[in-house]
Amino acid sequence: MPRKPALHGDALIGTCIELLQVLSDSPTQTAPFAQTATLLQVSEDQLTSAVDTLCGLAHRQSGARVAVFIEDDTISLLGDVATFHAIRLSLQEGMVLAHVLNLLNIDASVRERVERAMLSLETVDATPQPDTIGSVSIYGRFYQQIEIAIQDCVRLILTYRSSNDTAPRPRTVDPLAIKQDRDAAYLIGWDVEKDAQRLYRLDRIDNVAYTDDSVEIHPWENASIQQSLTAGALKATVSFPSKETLEQAGWAGIADTDGDADQNGRVRATVYIADEEWLFDRVLGSGGQIIIESPSDLRQRLVEYAHRLASRIS
Predict the structure, then answer these.
(1) Which stretches of 129-172 are DSSP H helices?
(2) Residue range 124-145: average pLDDT?
(3) Where is the WCX domain (predicted)?
(4) 49, containing H or E segment
(5) For 9-78, CATH number?
(6) Coil, strand or helix: which one is 47?
(7) Is the pLDDT of residue 16 over 70?
(8) Is the peptide bond before 241 cis (omega within 30 degrees of 0)?
């Protein structure tokens, strides 16, 4: 009988996953070697190759290695680094997960595998929703790629448009972490060209490309989102209808307030923003309750932004 060819690529990965599933399902995390080869429809050499491949894997964050070995015609899996465990979701959890899948716009194949593993969600609108003006996803379209780069320490080229740019432009960035505010998510990264720590709103990233370089060690500052926004961001004076409304807004860029309310009960605050359209959306959404008082050119750009929205709607 001719020998089966060596496993490569998807075939090897699939065999490794199926082997881990078999070992995870066993109460002792062991399986007979020959019977496992028959079950997985591979030769003994191919199965040995899968075991060798698994032994070279390690947990991405902890560094713990996968312990799989063959002894006395038995395959054994030690520890729980590579075990598979089923997670049973409630209906509410399944609905939340389906909603998050829509927001993140992750790879279609990943989305399909997750959906097949969930409860039937016929009552949930599972159609991916396109970004709309003033209502883009918090995490943007590249959360998955950025998270992988952070975990694998890969330098990125971000095509990004800040509030000061008229068009997106490329930036070479060493990614560190993703932080989330109440209604926005940010990448904390090191701008290689400027040699400084910067904050990038995920929904303002137009494209992400991996480089062949690894990130370097930088003097990172453990700054909050508010502190990061304050550094080099746009500054505006904004008035709110009341102190309660100001507190409920919960904007990370609010640096200080004028304290006491005026005779009309309004409270003023200094707000630092990385994206002026983010502020415009919230001012317009308040129906005139939140007002930009200064600078005057920012007020004028708000009017122009509102006209652009109105023209697109009409």
Answers:
(1) 143-152
(2) 57
(3) 261-310
(4) helix 44-55
(5) 1.10.10.10
(6) helix
(7) yes
(8) no
- What is the signed CA dihedral for 151, 153, 155, 156, rounded to 10 degrees? 0
CB atoms within 10 A of CB 311: 8
Fold held by 234-313 = Alpha-Beta Plaits (3.30.70)
Q: Do 103 and 139 contact (CB within 8 A), yes or no?
A: yes
255 within 8 A of 230, measured Cβ to Cβ: yes
Is there a shared CATH topology between the 9-78 domain and the 234-313 domain?
A: no
Q: What is the pTM of this model?
A: 0.44
User: Which one-letter amino acid corresponds to residue 11?
Assistant: A
Evaluate the CA torsion angle 24, 29, 33, 34 in order and state its sign.
negative
Contact 119, 94 (CB under 8 A): yes
Taking 50 as the threshold, does the pLDDT of residue 153 lie above it? Answer: yes
Handedness of CA 98, 99, 101, 102 (dihedral sign): positive
Confidence of residue 130 (pLDDT cuts 50, 70, 90): very low
Domain ranges of the chain: 9-78, 143-222, 234-313
Of the chain, the percentage scoring pLDDT greater than 90 comes to 12
CATH 2.30.30 assigned to domain 143-222? The reply is yes
First to last CA, the chain: 72
Task: In whole angstroms, give the CA distance from residue 46 to residue 55.
Answer: 14
